[in-house]
Write a structure and sequence with these properties.
Layout: H1 6-11, E1 16-21, H2 30-45, E2 50-53, H3 65-73, E3 79-84, H4 90-102, E4 107-111, H5 132-144, E5 147-150, E6 153-156, E7 163-168, H6 175-190, E8 196-198, H7 204-216, E9 223-228, H8 232-239, H9 250-259, H10 267-284, E10 288-292, H11 298-311, E11 333-335, E12 342-346, H12 359-372, H13 379-389, H14 394-410, H15 459-468, H16 493-498, H17 504-508
Parallel strand pairs: 1-2, 1-10, 2-3, 3-4, 4-7, 7-8, 8-9, 9-10
Antiparallel strand pairs: 5-6, 11-12
Length: 520
């Protein structure tokens, strides 16, 4: 009987076990030989369904995962190739995908990627030309067969066979961050994510919250829970948020420090904890687990799996051992004191703590209602004016006025394809280091930007708080925002908006060159 593929197992709703391996730097290093050895053991042991290969995790340089993935395929083991947006523009990502299809490496984990931190020649320039939702859409279109124009007419590329997944963090401490994670998850699912792997965390209620939220929203997507066998040195780094998105609370860190004093440095306790979390996740309804950890052996992986299955019938007894809430942490659902998990009833959203008047945003809202709502107030006048100015000498003066005012108010980058109206008048190009136009990345911590912790607020958190003051927070991130059009750089975004050249045109029904009044 032919072995079922990773895709088939997920689609047939069987329980999935994946194992994350990190190939590391260099071409012929011991780390690569070790990854191949572990993958070979997993192939022989038949307990793991696929190994997951990271792409430059933590922003540190490493070998491209598909090279190791191809060698692993020859061992009889499937791999999941991580593909990120941080180092390649959309053209290079498309080329990369063609290569992966050619190599028959079709299982993908699509993520934004960690901000670059090091290189031999100094800190590299991050790219983030598109985000994970855009990349998922590209993959979905490639699976249908991309059509493009040539001098001889239309040509269609043969459909690819990718099986893409995405990631989400249920371990956010604030309301804004958590709700935005889930609104972006919706976009990932709509753009083709076939399975979801969680970020690293150890709070059973948060794992359960994700499951409840997905079921409440009726999103038909398999959830795979991340079980990272964290040791004390790694936990210290995560506790300081130096590995963005991975959450280790002070309570867990203190526990790990005590365990680290034992003769085996806490290995036995660590394996037992992982086995119990395995049982809890499978018991509560996850369709799989994603195992990981530093210097983990295949024998330890087998132990976690077999011991987890052994503990499964009593999984509810172990929920209390994963009680690691974040300080003043936000939960969407009310707590069930009997089970230690959640009720199916959503909690009342707390009042926004930020009540101070945001003059910049109040002015922006006023001007938006006057000038930027299609068919209302001064929109028709501005549309006619823009059509007349376009391509004429006066356009540069009009553009100059726009640029000066927006630089002062919004740290404008003169994109020409403005997303201010999509993010409550916070610029995702000027104020977000990753240029996220469809929701936040997973690296924020207590509302702070991953790249500038304690110094710069996440732009999406700021936007959420602005809108919540007007009870409009559910409007944020409610529609997809197209990638930035670089052809419009250093042109007037106002003219581009009113004449239907920017990303807003299709959604708002603004037709190219139309000077008639539009309906909202």
């Amino acid at each position: 009987m032919m072995k079922k593929t990773f895709r088939q197992l997920i689609q047939e709703k069987e329980f999935i076990i994946t194992w994350e391996l990190v190939p590391g730097r260099g071409s012929w290093e011991d780390t690569h030989r070790n990854v191949l050895k572990l993958a070979d053991q997993a192939a022989i042991g038949k307990k793991v369904h696929a190994v997951s290969l990271t792409e430059n995790p933590g922003g540190k340089t490493g070998i491209q995962p598909e090279v190791i993935g191809r060698e692993i395929a020859e061992l009889g083991m499937e791999s999941i190739i991580h593909i990120t947006c941080k180092d390649k523009n959309r053209s290079q990502l498309e080329s990369h995908l063609y290569a992966l299809e050619r190599l028959k490496l079709n299982n993908l984990l699509v993520i934004s990627g960690d901000y670059a931190t090091e290189s031999i020649l100094g800190c590299p320039k991050p790219v983030f030309d598109i985000d994970s939702t855009h990349l998922l859409k590209l993959i979905t279109e490639m699976n249908s067969g991309i059509e493009f124009s040539t001098p001889r007419g239309k040509t269609r590329i043969k459909p690819s066979n990718f099986f893409p997944g995405a990631a989400v963090s249920p371990f956010k401490a604030t309301e804004a961050e958590q709700m935005l994670q889930y609104s972006k998850l919706k976009k990932k699912i709509e753009n083709g994510a076939q399975y979801i792997i969680t970020q690293i965390g150890y709070d059973a209620r948060k794992y359960h919250e994700l499951l409840l939220y997905v079921n409440t929203m009726k999103w038909k997507v398999p959830l795979i829970g991340n079980i990272f066998m964290v040791d004390y040195p790694a936990a210290r780094i995560m506790n300081k948020n130096n590995i963005p998105g991975c959450v280790v609370t002070d309570k867990l860190l203190a526990q790990l420090e005590q365990e680290n004093q034992s003769c085996d440095k806490g290995i036995a306790v660590r394996m037992e904890r992982a086995a119990k979390l395995f049982a809890v996740l499978k018991g509560m309804g996850y369709q799989g687990v994603h195992l990981g950890g530093l210097n983990v052996t295949y024998e330890q992986i087998e132990y976690v799996i077999s011991r987890g299955e052994e503990l499964l019938p009593n999984w509810k007894e172990y929920v209390s051992e994963f009680d690691y809430p974040q300080d003043q942490g936000f939960y969407i659902f009310e707590k069930n004191n009997e089970t230690g998990l959640n009720q199916e009833k959503m909690s009342d959203s707390p009042e926004n703590a930020q009540k101070k008047t945001d003059i910049n945003y109040k002015i922006s809202r006023g001007f938006h209602k006057l000038f930027f709502v299609p068919g209302k107030k001064f929109f028709p006048v501005m549309q006619k004016l823009s059509s007349r100015l376009e391509g004429r000498k006066l356009e540069k003066y009009f553009h100059g006025i726009e640029r000066i005012s927006k630089e002062f108010m919004y740290n404008c980058q003169d994109c020409g394809d403005c997303a201010l109206t999509d993010v409550a008048y916070v610029c995702p190009m000027g104020d977000c280091p990753k240029n996220q136009r469809n929701g936040p990345c997973e690296g924020s911590y207590y509302g702070w930007c991953e790249v500038y912790p304690g110094k710069r607020q996440c732009v999406w958190v700021k936007a959420y708080q602005r809108l919540k003051n007007y009870h409009e927070e559910k409007q944020l991130n409610s529609y997809p925002v197209s990638p930035y059009n670089w052809k419009l750089q250093h042109t007037s975004s106002w003219i581009n908006y009113y004449t239907g050249k920017d990303h807003s045109a299709e959604r708002l029904g603004i037709q190219r060159g139309n000077t008639k009044e539009q309906s909202k």
